[in-house]
UniProtKB/TrEMBL annotation:
Domain Aspartate/glutamate/uridylate kinase: 30-273
Designated name of the protein: Acetylglutamate kinase
GO molecular function terms noted in the UniProt entry: acetylglutamate kinase activity; ATP binding
GO BP terms: L-arginine biosynthetic process via ornithine
Binding-site residues, substrate: 69-70, 91, 196
Lineage, broadest ranks: Bacteria, Pseudomonadati, Pseudomonadota, Alphaproteobacteria, Sphingomonadales
Cellular localisation: Cytoplasm
UniProt site positions, description: Transition state stabilizer: 34, 256
Family: Belongs to the acetylglutamate kinase family. ArgB subfamily.
Transmembrane segments: none
Entry EC no(s): 2.7.2.8
Length: 299
């Protein structure tokens, strides 16, 4: 072992020693982790992510992974010559787009993630919201303001769904059998219609239904930032409302934080927005005194 290997090993051991009380505190609890499509782009980071998930399982925590894949769906649609548009961060989904989204999310990405988890020594079980009737979806209804008249008008997003009911039996069964559920954000309606669901929304609904100790949203920023770009480390739902009103948060951060508020108000203990680009970001968040990212708790 050379000098720099030794230093790295000592640093890892120090993180693990610091982590011991946290392992005990969370043993037997569920962590729902949303892994976004952007974060998956870097194979080294993906390997670290899979190792962290398997480590959580090894120390007695039950990780449940919900993955995205927006950029990957976009690439496939482009190859097929299909145009994609978004309303409030949601992909307008016609029948062909729904088919492509299911193929990319439930087929390619889901199985790739299962592969990484298995390579890291875990037992991944790849499913979507359809399996075991995990998520029954209903169509999302949205309105947008017409800039000319300032009047709210209904906009049809097609087959974009939201979880209306969550039956966690398949997750409970997989966890009891020592597996790590890896969930694609696709659901079916009562009538069997396939719905494309925003991955943050899917993760929040599952975290709420499981009464998870944590909902973790791994994204491409250090957390929620103030107007000066400084990290806001603790937020409550009223803080989030204020940040929204004064324009501090925008874009994709709005649905993300809506999901966090919904989850913590519906039974998840706390949600965290953190930087999925940072190596071992989850371990730093959970198992160090300093933490990382933005923690959101109900008041
Ligand atoms: N106050 C804020 N703090 C951090 N990010 C913000 C804020 N307001 C808007 N954002 C945007 O939200 C983005 C994260 O949301 P999104 O792009 O939907 O992430 P993901 O693809 O990981 O789901 C950031 O990259 C940033 O551009
Ligand atoms: C309705 C809707 O927008 N669904 C998303 C599902 C994937 C997703 O949310 O992936 P990320 O987390 O990587 O963005 C989409 O079609 O892109």
């Amino acid at each position: 072992m050379n000098g720099s290997d030794e230093t790295a090993t000592i640093a890892k051991a120090q993180v693990l020693i610091e982590a011991l009380p946290y392992f005990q505190r969370y043993a037997g609890r569920t962590f729902v982790v949303k892994y976004g499509g952007h974060a998956m782009g870097d194979p080294a980071a993906a390997r670290d992510f899979a190792e962290d998930i398997v480590l959580l399982k090894a120390v007695g925590i039950n990780p449940v992974v919900v993955h995205g894949g927006g950029p990957q769906i976009g690439t496939m649609l482009k190859k097929l010559g299909v145009e994609s548009t978004f309303v409030d961060g949601l992909r307008v989904t016609d029948a062909e787009t729904a088919q492509v989204a299911e193929m990319v999310l439930s087929g390619a990405i889901n199985k790739e993630l299962v592969g990484w988890i298995n390579q890291a020594g875990g037992k991944g079980l790849g499913i979507s919201g359809k399996d075991g009737r995990l998520v029954t979806a209903t169509k999302v209804q949205r309105t947008v303001k017409d800039p000319a008249s300032n009047i709210e008008q209904a906009v049809d997003l097609g087959f974009v769904g939201q979880p209306a009911a969550v039956d966690t039996t398949i997750i409970d069964t997989a966890v009891a059998a020592g597996m790590i559920p890896i969930i694609a954000p696709i659901g079916a309606g009562e009538d069997g219609q396939t719905y494309n669901i925003n991955a943050d929304t899917m993760a929040g609904a599952i975290a709420a239904a499981l009464g998870a100790a944590r909902l973790l949203l791994l994204t491409d920023v250090p957390g929620v930032l103030d107007k000066q770009g400084e990290l806001l480390s603790d937020l409550t739902p009223p803080d989030i409302e204020r940040l929204r009103e004064d324009g501090t948060i925008g874009g994709g951060m709005i649905p993300k934080l809506e999901t966090c508020v919904h989850a913590v108000e519906a039974g998840c203990e706390a949600a965290v927005v953190l930087d999925g680009r940072v190596s071992h970001a989850m371990l730093l968040e959970f198992f160090t005194v300093r933490g990382a990212g933005t923690l959101i708790r109900a008041e």
